[in-house]
Amino acid sequence: MYPLEGKVALVTGGSRGIGRAIAGRLAGDGAVVAVAYARDHTAATEVVERIRGDGGEAFAIQAELGRHGDAIALWTAFDQRIGAHAPGGGVDIIVNNAGIGRSADLASLTEEGFDEVFAVNVRAPFFIVREGLKRLRDGGRIINISSGAARLAMPEIIAYGSTKGALDTFTLNLARQLGPRGITANSVAPGIVDTDVNAGWLRGNPRAEAHAASLAALGRVGQPADIADIVAFLAGDDARWVTGRVIDATGGAGL
């Protein structure tokens, strides 16, 4: 049984890390997945080939986020490709996963750095959804990848945490506005996850890994599949009565 059979999903930042895991899981559940990426064509192609090798269906689309017109460019690329994979077009699941971080505190963050992180993490999802509503079918799903940094004080990444707080507020308002169409909107907030982004300080460093694991009540570092499985639940019919929520996916960090 494939719970997402006949559905179409768009996953931004789908070429690596959490996005890669989400794309693979949704495809494994039967969805046709548009793997959106910014620059790494090779990585995106590898994701698509792996999905197809596992019997799923996916295609890659390129659009660099964080600049004006990025949402229109993304959906234009989607429209050009979707017909070959799902006749009739349209989308059922939008996963706003793409994001960037800035390791800077209040004193050291530049205006340019502030603008960039908000452009990618907040403005892009806002307009991706706005443009996507023309294609999103009734009963659809919007899933925004937030962060535990939105509820935990982390002054060293103050701008990043602020963007995720804004994303959660966006989610809340989407849930209220789109409820009459049967569309749910939820955020998933990971903690520390073993991805390429964290590899430089985490992998191969027993002390760093032990410290990261100690922050979670469940006593380990998160894996991309941990997050992908939660997204798959929210994308399916079992989550039809869940909307406007921030799902904590930190393993119990900060309890």
Automatic annotation (TrEMBL):
UniProt xrefs under Pfam families:
adh_short_C2 (PF13561)
**This protein's UniProt keywords:** Oxidoreductase
- In this chain the Ketoreductase domain maps to 7-191
- Say if the entry is tagged with keyword NAD: no
Q: Which InterPro entries match?
A: KR_dom, NAD(P)-bd_dom_sf, Sc_DH/Rdtase_CS, SDR_fam
Transmembrane annotation, as ranges: none
Q: Molecular function terms in GO for this entry?
A: oxidoreductase activity
The similarity annotation says: Belongs to the short-chain dehydrogenases/reductases (SDR) family.
Protein's UniProt name? Short-chain dehydrogenase
Native source species:
Acrocarpospora corrugata
